[in-house]
Amino acid sequence: MTLTENLFENLRLELRRGCLTLAVLAQLKQEHYGYTLRKALAGRGMEIDESTLYPLLRRLEAQGLLTSEWREEEKRNKRFYRLSSDGEQIFTRLLEEWNAINTSITNLL
């Protein structure tokens, strides 16, 4: 990988990291377990690896933005995630910030 390609990849990942958080919070207004969340995100153009998704879910839960519970479904235990009340408030504020940034960038371009 050339220096330019490496730099681009690092910057792309940095940009994507914040977008993934917003995308996950948006999808968790409705309850999901990991697999259905991945599929919902992918179906809307936001692919995410399991190795990225599950640590993100654990971090968001530790920050108090998500709640989770284990339940049996289809004879398997699955952990279901949903926005907490704090998560709903933070999501609303982050979405406002995203929209303001998106407007600014669009105007700059």
**Helix count, DSSP H or I runs of 4 or more residues:** 4
Strand residues, percent: 15-25%
> What would you call the quaternary organization?
single chain
Structural class: alpha+beta
Helix percentage range: 55-70%
The end-to-end span amounts to 28 Å
Mean pLDDT: 94
Number of beta strands: 3
Output the radius of gyration: 16 Å
Major β-sheet annotation: 3 strands, antiparallel
Side by side, the strands of the main sheet go 1-3-2
Order of helices and strands: HEHHEEH
Show unreliable segments. none
What overall geometry do the principal axes of the alpha carbons give?
globular
Written description of the protein model:
Helices cover 66% and strands 17% of the residues. With 109 residues, it is α+β, with helices and mostly antiparallel strands. The protein has helices at residues 3-27, 34-43, 50-62, 85-108; strands at 32-33, 66-73, 76-83. Strand 2 and strand 3 form a beta hairpin. A three-stranded antiparallel sheet has the order 1-3-2.
